[in-house]
Amino acid sequence: MKDSRTWMVLSLFITCLISAFALSQIYNLTLPQIEYQRNVAGLKAAFGTVMPEADRFEPATPDSSVWLAFKGETRIGSIIKTAKQGYGGPVPVTAGVDLQGRIVAIKVASAAEGLKETPGLGLKATEPEFRDQFRGKTAAEIRLTKDGGTIQAITGATITSRAVTDGVRETLEKYREMLILQQEPDSEQ
Amino acid sequence: MNSKPSRISYLTSGIIKENPTLILMIGLCPTLATTVTARDALGMAAAASFVLICSNIAISAIRKLVPDSVRIPIFIIIISTFVTIIDYVMQAYQPDLYRVLGVFVPLIVVNCIILGRAEAFAYHHGIFDSFLDGLGKSLGFTLVLFIMGSLRELFGAGTFFGSPVLPAAYRSAPMLFAIFPPGAFLLIGLLKALVNKLGWGR
Amino acid sequence: MKLNPGQIFLAAFLVNNIILMRFIGLCPFFGVSTSVSTSIGMSAAVLFVMLLASWVSWVLYHAMLLPLGLVFLRTAVFILVIAALVQFVEMFLKRYIRNLYSAMGIYLPLITTNCAILAVTFFNINYNFNLLQATVFALGTAAGFALAIILFAAIRERLDDAPISPAFKGYPIAFIGAALVSLAFMGFTALFGIS
Amino acid sequence: MDWSLIIKSLVTLGGLGLILGVILLIASIKLAVKVDEREARIRSVLPGANCGACGYPGCDGYAAAIAAGKAPLNSCSVGGPEVARKIGEIMGQEVTAAEPKVAVLICRGGKNEAPLRFQYKGAQNCRQAALLLGGPKACIYGCVGFGHCVTVCPVQAIRMGENRLPIIDERKCIGCGRCVTECPKGTLTLIPRRKLIYLACVSHDRGRAVKEVCSVGCIACGLCTRVCPVGALRMENNLPVMDFQKCIDCGICAHKCPTKSFIDRAPGRPKASINPRCTGCGECVKVCQFKAIEGEPGKQHRVIPEKCIGCGQCVLVCPVKAIDLVGALGHSVKTI
Question: Is the dihedral of CA B124, B129, B131, B136 positive or negative?
Fold first, then answer.
């Protein structure tokens, strides 16, 4: 029986069936975990630049405009997302905030991600010179120099600069309790 | 059946006398490709060992039922099942290791050691012996991968499992040659020469 | 991947040479490259099977696995197809084209366990090539395999007669030779490559 | 338990397995190559050394040729008569056994006898060394001594002596002839296994030209051709060529040769001894080329053992069969 022709085909068929069943089970079992890993990786790609040390993010608000950033189990800060109306359209901004409410870094969505600002002007908001001005500042300081703040607007692109700056400040103030956990030791509020 | 001592030899022979990578010269692809750091090397070795041991057991369990003319495709399906299992488990629980090993995890299915042992050993021996043989060969494989991994990491980055070993001066400008492909070829060549000198596997 | 076919071929042929830069397919590489004639036979067999395998696996993946969401069957299906393909090609050649079989036939069983073939099918999927790009990639890789193995076989033939200390004779000196050839191939990375 | 996924997966992989199984089944039937069943059996009988001594590409080639009726049944010298007999049974034909052969070195100019002309530092391989002005040895015909034959021998019957000349182990040698074809200088040859005496020199020079380059080379003096009782030797291109059918291995040429260029494979040689039936006719004295027999005419003669080389000429010529050969001889001498 062992080497009869029908058994030759049948044995291959049965092995395939068993293997197919086992594989589908494994796929079902590991799918949720893989999805979780995939979106963690996705978030890490998105928020990695504004909050480098964090390796885990959890949404804090229903509209997911604020995320809490964790390193392992300890919380090290949060991420805020705003999209105020700029010159050509909404200017999506992502900002990393530490526990003292200071900006770690901000990222302005690039043209590829749908930013419609005019190249050479509004689009310069995505460049480090403008973005690095926000580093280490609290909500009070985040205002254009024209409006009495410390952020130097991009020449000729005041509307875009104001959209980014006001967007960040308003979100910071709106979720002040959630963002700031440790009082600034010598904060001059 | 065979006497007791030869059973233990199934296990011990895989480590030195018939070490798959350095003596039988099979399973070279993962040995060179995934040993940039010791941690990746061990990850790869663990994955390959799991597949080798499970497939050895499975194949020897059904060896009486497998018709000779179709045995290769059947072996391959069994091995690919275990490989896909480890593939998805690693994707789920060890994503960064999976990203480093990349295509080499599914490539375990054509790893010469596994199909080789299945064909040469598991198809003719009992389950326990096949398990011993699989274990022995995996230990041998892991040993070589660990040596290659730690050496390449030591020279290429001056660290061991990530923690620094060599002085910072070295680490600032390590011998990157060890991490590139030529370094791996050279290292395995020297290891094989050493093995020849020591007379293993004579 | 917006590389045009010419770039893909060159990348697969030189820059990401499957053996010397990607370490895939080393078992037959060291096993068969003892003489130039056997290497040529092996390369012809690899080219033939790699092309067939690429087409069949690409079609199966995009026509069956992807739409049905059975991506996890990828490994099993591909290697099953390759094994069956090799067995079928061997029988076909043995029956109809005798002299081709005698030149290439003995290498065919070796190819089932050749990592290079399966690796090409995976790269075709990971880089989501269309059918044309996949074909060009397979051709480039097979050419790269042939280049590496024939080049190396010539070197090994000379090595056999060179006065080498006993411990280094055979595989060790072959590895060191491969290291030098791989070093040479690293020069191509300055061009462009598929990551 | 997401049944839809399981069903799809079962159908896909199961279906593929089934289809491939069926295809392979059909292929194995339809494409079955009508291998001549006898060819397989012949192949199993052949030793499998793939040495090519039969002149066909390995044993597979030879088996195919026999099955097709194109090849003689007894040209497998490695297998010898026993394999030939089995093939005959398979093919149902009566077979005369092929004569088993053995490889011998026909050069005695080692390191001590033939000095080097120049220091050769190139690849330690006969073929490559021979390309360079015929090799480093003074005698351009002789064995280069880098042991290429050692590497090609399929049964490892040859090893390199310290005198830089290969030593062939007759018990291991299967007479496949690969070393003969591989040797670039042609200093190896196949002789029938039962043959005792053979010439061990390939130099085509004469006299002093040989002496300058090798102390044991044949100087083509031609003495052997004159002393051979059966005329089995004749000079050709300054080398004595032996007709193996005529030669009776008496050993006279070997003993007479001034440079001892002949080699006698017999481990030992018998001595003649004269029994009382001897009538003292003196025929044996005339025929003995080594003056090993003495005695007055009409009286019983006596053999001087040290001088007798056991060539057996006296035994043949004695009218009253009064002489017989006594003592060790690897192979019995052909007595009429």
Answer: negative
**Is D132 touching B (CB cutoff 8 A)?**
no
Terminus-to-terminus CA distance in chain B, angstroms?
A: 26
Q: Do D67 and D121 sit in the same domain of this protein?
A: no
Q: Which domain holds residue D214?
A: 195-266
* CATH number (domain holding residue D313): 3.30.70.20
State the CATH architecture for A56-179: Alpha-Beta Complex (3.90)
Q: Rounded to the nearest 10 degrees, what angle do helices D15-30 and B71-93 cross at?
A: 150
Q: Compute the nearest-CA separation of C190 from chain D (Å).
A: 37
| Binding residue ranges of D | 51, 54, 59, 76, 139, 143, 149, 153, 173, 176, 179, 183
User: How far, in Å, CA of D95 to CA of D88, rounded?
Assistant: 6
How does pLDDT run across A158-173, given as a tens digit for each residue? 888 888 888 888 888 8
Structural contact between residues D109 and D139, judged by C-beta atoms closer than 8 angstroms: yes
- From the list C70, C88, C95, the residue facing D24 with the nearest CB is C88
Structure-derived torsion over alpha carbons of residues C176, C177, C183, C188, reported in degrees to the nearest 10: -150
Q: Are residues D184 and D104 in the same domain?
A: yes
Cα B44 to Cα B113: distance, rounded to the nearest angstrom: 14
Q: Are D33 and C94 within 8 A, CB to CB? A: yes
- Of all residues in chain D, the one with the smallest CA distance to A22 is D6
Mean pLDDT of A42-47: 77
Region of poorest pLDDT, from B99-108, D81-90, D294-303: D81-90
The residue extents of the domains of chain A are: 56-179
Q: Quick one: residue D147, left, alpha or beta (phi over 0 = left, psi -120 to 50 = alpha)? A: left
Amino acid letter for position A45: A
Q: What is the pLDDT of residue D33?
A: 66
Nearest C-alpha in C relative to B26 = C27
Contacts 24+ apart (CB under 8 A), D284-290: D284/D313, D284/D314, D284/D317, D284/D318, D284/D323, D286/D317, D287/D229, D287/D313, D287/D314, D287/D316, D287/D317, D288/D313, D288/D314, D289/D227, D289/D252, D289/D256, D289/D313, D290/D255
Q: Of D155, D188, D221, which closes a domain? A: D188
CB contact under 8 A, B73 and D20: yes
Return the biggest CA–CA distance within chain A: 92
**In terms of pLDDT, which residue wins out, C19 or A111?**
C19
CB contact at 8 A, D222 and D238: no
Alpha-carbon distance A85 to C68, whole Å? 42
* Position C140 pLDDT exceeds 90: yes
Q: How far is B1 from chain C (nearest CA, A)?
A: 32
pLDDT tens-digit map of D161-217: 888 889 988 888 888 888 888 888 888 998 888 888 888 888 888 888 888 888 888
Residues of D in contact with B69 (CB under 8 A): 28
Question: Taking a C-beta distance cutoff of 8 angstroms, is the pair D177, D101 a contact?
Answer: yes
Q: Tens digit of pLDDT for each residue in A125-159?
A: 778 888 888 888 888 888 888 888 888 888 888 88
- Three-state DSSP at D33 gives coil
| Single residue among D162, D188, D214 that ends a domain in this structure | D188
Output Rg (C-alpha) for chain A, integer angstroms. 25
Nearest-CA neighbor of A76 among A59, A52, A45, A60? A52
Alpha-carbon distances, residue D147 vs A9, D143, D144, D151, D164 (angstroms): 54, 9, 8, 7, 8
Contacts of D120 (CB under 8 A, 6+ apart): D129, D132, D135, D136
A5–D13 CB contact, under 8 Å: no
**Binding-site positions of D for [4Fe-4S] cluster:** 51, 54, 59, 76, 139, 143, 149, 153, 173, 176, 179, 183
**How many domains does chain D contain in total?**
4
* Distance of alpha carbon B7 from alpha carbon D92, whole angstroms: 48
Partner-chain contact B185 C176, CB within 8 Å: yes
